[in-house]
Recover the amino acids of this structure.
């Protein structure tokens, strides 16, 4: 059986009550294939925290009118939406663009237009320099993956600052990158402020006290936007005063757990996002909230949703690769907000290419790196 | 000449005697191409230990009715069967399913149905963590192969616990995996019980006294199912009291020699299997008896036979790869028995893909790893 | 709108004055698509240093008659030329060849004719030996890239002389090459004069005082042509007396910045080239002035322009690969001038093959190495 | 112009004298395209050492009747033969087989028939074990290449015995192989006699006095056939008494220079071969005289000529790969003479596959290894 759910409309924005409730529960229990028009009845476009989802229609397929609703992108509400497709009913594009909105889907065309063709008369100096502060004993792979990802994302020159125990590993695995050895054998105890380099701090650095000290010292002096990921965020979570020292327009890339360690527990993805919107505005930073439909929250509170990627990318090292891409784009002169959005888009795109070749089970972080070149190439090709 | 052997039937289940014997010997010596219907005359479906195989018809081709007989899968009796194919005579599938049976062929459809499509809203935490206790001076490759195989089998996060001499090798070869260094430079002297990690012990650990001590100490405390392979089994064979400490539902993966070191010598594959059935039930563990037609014996005594794979996989490191796959599946939440069966099926499937590319002579254990992604992908695709 | 610019001709060789000037400015501001015949009006074929480029027609497309003009190949004047194509108007080839010229485009046919098919009865001794003096702590990748590039450019045997800290890296990454360890752990302090080996000095050696001393000592005794690149040039720039000790017919491969460090600042590419022509003649060396349209200046002052390559090659390590190729060709017996020209052509050709596979953003120096074999193969195939 | 040279015939077996001489010189100087029937006039099928080649017709193409002559395979006489093809005139194959001959072309069909399909009920123990005694500081690549080649040639298990400095390199580059560390850090000072392992000694071991001592001690006790290559042969050349200790049916694989160091200088390839025939019979060993048309000389004096391969294989490490292949085949139970012949055939076949992909200039020893699997596969496929 097929049920077409178009009664309540999405404009209603009110919870289903009374008879409607019992109707929707009946539909949900019927086992019928449910198609919702625009949005499942009972679901709001935004802010479903107080909504009783049991009473909301659980569609198998939602045919969104003109564009997807925000609630499609959260784990808790996505269950009501099922698979979704956009019905183009010919809305005027200009009208859409002028409608004030607070969330946006990152689309391939926008990414393509930002990533311009290179001018032939350029040298590696025109494509930026990035210094990765990454790695510690037993976690050097994170540093390697981030650095390799950056070299495959158009970066001119990469330097890796890591403990001495990372020397042989890094120079063997990424011959294109320079290596700067920390004084310590196993952990990072000093963060150099390399002039002219875009800094990225975090992949695999651990949470040694000396590393935290180094991060604290560094952040106090730091002025230009940096990228903070993984253990750098965990360090900050342990010494939260550092939060105030993150330079304006920096990018942080927490997944849900890291985000909660930084900003307190959240019950739902939507709650977490609302907090991120608040914190991005307060701290004037870009927050990349990682997950399925990664959300990039800009310092002005606008939210960009990324729809590329697949669950095969839920694998160790995947986040380190993302850090490498974003850092490379930042070093090439893109604004933090743009670098973060495009980075997420390309990361997921490369992951999708990798899936075609090695499937979801076989997908490793190295496969994402290996597909970055083709990803950029396909995205940038005129369609 | 072609001889059709259908006289005695497989239901007879009696040894060939008298005139029949001389007839079958005559046929075997005739040089004719012999086709047996259902099962070669004189061969039993099971329990041929006391059978005189000289008197059994040696077929070139056996056309099994509805399903292959158990005796097709042992080296000693397979010689009588020759090549075999199944004749589907339209038996009722449900009837087959309800017939009590003690052995089963692992089939692709069953594997496909168990390996479900991933939910997009998942993170690496949803795909488990595994800790490999593996490697020693001169045998670090075994640790690398097992860990890499696990990362290509859907595992969320891998950690390798190895001697210090394995550090650079592991971090260069498997950047996705964490490394935990043993106190000793060359051998493992301590087995950490990493909370939340599925443990796999054995590839390349050697048989140093300190390693045996560590294994003994670990097993005494161990509660959750673990995977034991290779040198871990050889260690146990030297101190057999450890056998009693293997946690319930653990998986051991001996080849014939390792099995005999553990449980005494056996003359034939069939004898060895019968012993395995007994021991699996006694110890409440899963025994993966490796070889052509690897047999997975469950704690309830049921035997699952794997038919994927090829003799090009008879190469160093092949078993380490299998350990990696099974461990990854166990860590992802499959039951031990299921993880073992599916692991063997995928291992052989990947080996067959590798053979198509590099042939039997050129096939190395790394090739099996490299084809795991494609193997999972092809198996999981709807047919 | 389309404007055809063919009024002034290229033979005029005079700056645009008066009314012409205002006309050309008007055309430039019009937004029309401008097609220049032969050369944009107001631009000279050579020597535009004193020209006021604002007054020159800025074409979108230039249709050069018979061959491109020299000014097409400099960053500052290329802007006026736009895209260019050659119109073959049937000039007599012999006549062209006999016209005295001081610059030449490197063409594929010439490269093909020089790279002869190998005689089957040859051994690795027939394809030369090269010793790379390269690498230092943190910059071993440069050494690896140069050595690997040489092995993929037909060289018989490569040796790498590097500090001790480079040992494991080099032997793992380039098993085909021998390693010679410097006495020092981190920098080069001695340059061996290995008999029968073509020497290449520079990639990743840094500018340690001890390294400079070693270079100074070496150059004083050196007699045969060598290849000097990267930090070797930076060392020489700090102790300029070494310039006089560079053996005749040696090859130096500076990019614009390295060139200026050696020979003083230059405002334009054309000025820089004129200086290079002077210095190549004075020092009797080959100067490879790297950039888009790399110019190879021979000891006799003739300039060869290379047109292969793409801006994706503006990435760390790209120059090290070029050094490896040129050194391999020199070791195989080509004259310095020829080795340099062919090396640049093949380097760009391999970079173009790499771009087809991984695009401009994803292109790394290792990709250029990986495509060298196919590049040589395609170039050498009869067309 | 085309000259057909069929006047003198190959049966004449006499030097050209008088008028014939002046005629052949005239033809050679004419610039005409010369086609010789069967064999160029004046050239002998064998034994041209005293022949005056100036007087022999220098053909561009030789159409050999039924089979190529021995003189086609030597550098000095091949010049007279030019390109050659066999004209099949329908000679009776059996008659050919019964004609006593002392040299043979290795043909693909013979190789295919010897390399049998594997029995599915086999384990890695059925495919032998080999121990490579190889490598020293700065020359570990040779050890890596030989070991990797063996693992791609069907070997069950490989062990590498090398100095301590080779540990990390070997375990990273060949995870499938075990490593056995010599007591010395930089050179081999002890050769273990590993029971059940086929021994191969030589690639990259250098000529340290301690290494020579170890080789001398080892050879005195050795009883089973071993493979000796490269520096092992150079060591023996320095202490020639070791020659007498080489076990019967061992295989030595010198190129021309190594051969001459062992057995004295030779002016021509043919002279060298005659010496090899003598020495193989005296020492009862297999001599693989490497070069274009590698000749395998058996202990009975018979010579097998290999025609696979190409001059792109004239590159560092190519010989180490050959040692790996031959050793793997020997360990799998082939007789020394057969292992050597098949090894050379497969080595050249893999090199030809590599050439198709990376061309002659780009071909490295690693490429040969990478194509071994496909080579065995294609050779073994039924045609």
């Amino acid at each position: 059986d097929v049920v077409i759910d178009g009664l309540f409309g999405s404009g209603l924005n009110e919870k289903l009550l009374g008879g409607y409730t019992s109707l929707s529960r009946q539909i949900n229990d019927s086992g019928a294939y449910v198609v919702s028009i625009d949005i499942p009845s009972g679901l709001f476009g935004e802010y479903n925290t107080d909504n009783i989802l049991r009473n909301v229609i659980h569609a198998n397929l939602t045919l969104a009118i003109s564009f997807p609703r925000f609630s499609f992108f959260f784990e808790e509400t996505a269950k009501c939406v099922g698979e979704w497709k956009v019905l183009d009913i010919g809305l005027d594009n200009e009208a859409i663009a002028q409608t004030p909105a607070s969330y946006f889907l990152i689309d391939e065309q926008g990414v393509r237009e930002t990533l311009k063709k290179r001018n032939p008369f350029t040298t590696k100096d025109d494509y930026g320099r990035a210094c990765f502060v990454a790695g510690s004993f037993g976690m050097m792979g994170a540093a390697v993956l981030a650095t390799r990802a950056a070299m495959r994302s158009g970066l001119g020159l990469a330097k890796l600052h890591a403990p001495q125990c990372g020397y042989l590993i890094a120079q063997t695995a990424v011959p294109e990158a320079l290596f700067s050895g920390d004084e310590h054998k196993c952990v990072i105890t000093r963060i150099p402020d390399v002039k002219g380099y875009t800094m990225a701090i975090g992949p695999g650095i651990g949470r040694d006290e000396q590393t935290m000290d180094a991060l604290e010292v560094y952040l106090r002096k730091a002025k230009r936007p940096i990228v903070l990921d993984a253990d750098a965020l965990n360090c900050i979570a342990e010494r939260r005063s550092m939060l105030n020292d993150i330079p304006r327009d920096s990018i942080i890339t927490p997944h849900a757990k890291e985000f909660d360690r930084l900003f307190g527990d959240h019950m739902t993805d939507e709650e977490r996002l609302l907090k991120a919107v608040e914190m991005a505005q307060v701290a004037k930073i870009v927050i990349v909230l990682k997950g399925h439909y990664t959300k990039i929250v800009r310092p002005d509170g606008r939210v960009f949703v990324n729809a590329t990627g697949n669950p095969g990318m839920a694998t160790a090292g995947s986040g380190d690769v993302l850090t490498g891409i974003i850092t490379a784009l930042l070093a090439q002169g893109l604004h933090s907000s743009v670098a973060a959005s495009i980075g997420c888009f390309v990361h997921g795109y490369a992951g999708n290419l990798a899936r075609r070749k090695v499937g979801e089970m076989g997908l490793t972080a190295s496969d994402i790196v290996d597909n970055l070149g083709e990803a950029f190439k396909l995205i940038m090709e005129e369609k």
User: Anything to note?
Assistant: The first strand of chain B starts at residue 2 and ends at 5. Chain B touches chain C at residues 168, 172 (CB under 8 Å). Residues 9-13 of chain B have pLDDT under 50 and may be disordered. The longest helix of chain B spans residues 336-362.
